[in-house]
Amino acid sequence: MKFKCENCDREATVHLTEIADGQKVERHLCEECAAAEGITIKAQLPISQLLEELVLQSAAGKELSELRCDVCGITFLEFRQNGLLGCPNDYQAFEDVLVPLLERAHEGATVHAGKVPSNAADKERRQNELLQLRGQLKEAVAGEDYELAARIRDRIKDLEGL
Amino acid sequence: MNLADLTRRLAEWLKGTGPLSNVVVSSRVRLARNLAGMPFLSRCSSSQQREIAEQLRGMLVKTPLPGEMLYVDVENADPLDRLILVERHLISRQHADATGPRGVAVAGGESVAVMVNEEDHLRVQVLRGGLQLDSCYSEIRRLDELLEERLSFAFSSRFGYLTACPTNVGTALRVSVMLHLPALKMTGQIEKALRAARDMHLAVRGLYGEGTEAVGDLFQVSNQATLGKAEEQIVHEFKEQIVPGIIEYERRAREALLKNRRVALADKVHRALATLSAARLISSEETMYLLSHVRLGLSLGIADGVSAETINELSLLAQPGHLQVLHDKPGMAPAERGEARANLVRRKLGSLKPEAE
Q: Could you please report the per-residue DSSP string of B303-339?
């Protein structure tokens, strides 16, 4: 059975039973009216919406669809679909598109101003190398080149141990 | 310690004693971290995800987390155990419902929870009762340093700590409070207050996080921006500029109710208590709804004889998962739960003598 929202003409999607002064009252509201009464809470600015706006604003929508991260292989379109990045390198690979999105999501900020891990510069270099090695390892295993895979694994172990 | 032990004790933050606990039920701080040189979870192969889960589990059991530590393998936990973890705010619904190798480390009387392989490789949270954001933050900072001695996290000097979702990047720090706002709700000002909160770049969610309802007039408010500010500044602004404003709003609404609708308010509170003390069948929604009135009555001195601790305990034990574990009856039907819940409530409120059961 479908209900209309009791406050407006939209379809009611929120149904609840309230107890007011000992009386059971059934209520049917649409999402907007339920949020207005504080019954449900609308998530605001979900990442999907941010991304949608971004793509609409961007005249270069076509070019965006060709963006792809070399390290993890995710395309910008895949990111747009589920709102999640594939690897740390995506922040570089999609930088041009991400910066305006970060601006919207973080009150205009696009640069980190917080805590820095000790020996950060060193770590940054090492982590990029690790990412690339893991990509190569996947390929080596897929290509059944186990000798190469073993060498890459050793190198990964060395780097991780640092 | 195992999961059943958890359900038999009361988490530290539920004691109902923290500062300003008549409005602020709890404070929570969380950090997201990802391992350097590893893809984020959506691009991990299943063997990589397993590798991460095992590495992080091995590391966590060796890390000196505060108090007793329990590691739960969420992938292989049965659905009821996962539900218990969600109801206790130790994992998110998403983490409970996901697939693949993942887990959670719980420590410090449930004040610390570290989720492994949720949206990010690591999600560390510190939870305390009342308004205690500073102590939550200093604890999480200490934990972060402990972890950083053992792991290398994905970090860029420009964007900070790198997270799977760009809305968390930078400090990857989320600061939140669980607020009890019954007077704003009763006086119809809640949406105005929440809209004001949103204008201050806050996120508002229900009791169990994203997309959940505000059961029992409980609202979770948190910061949105994680980039461009230092951690201390995020905590400070949230604590000094944002939370006091909302508390003040609620306090004024409570005063207005006391002044203008005193009898109607007392009627609501005492009817709630009477229903809870007399019901033989009760749903968790109704329990939460009535407990909210009793909690309000307590804070205004209208009702007595019940402690905030009992109210917190009941709000937890009345949830479907806890009720089933308490009665050692997984798969208990909702109707049966209604009866068990009503008995539990009456026993805790003292209107059901043990021998009458």
A: --S--HHHHHHHHHHTSHHHHHHHTT-TT--HHHHHH
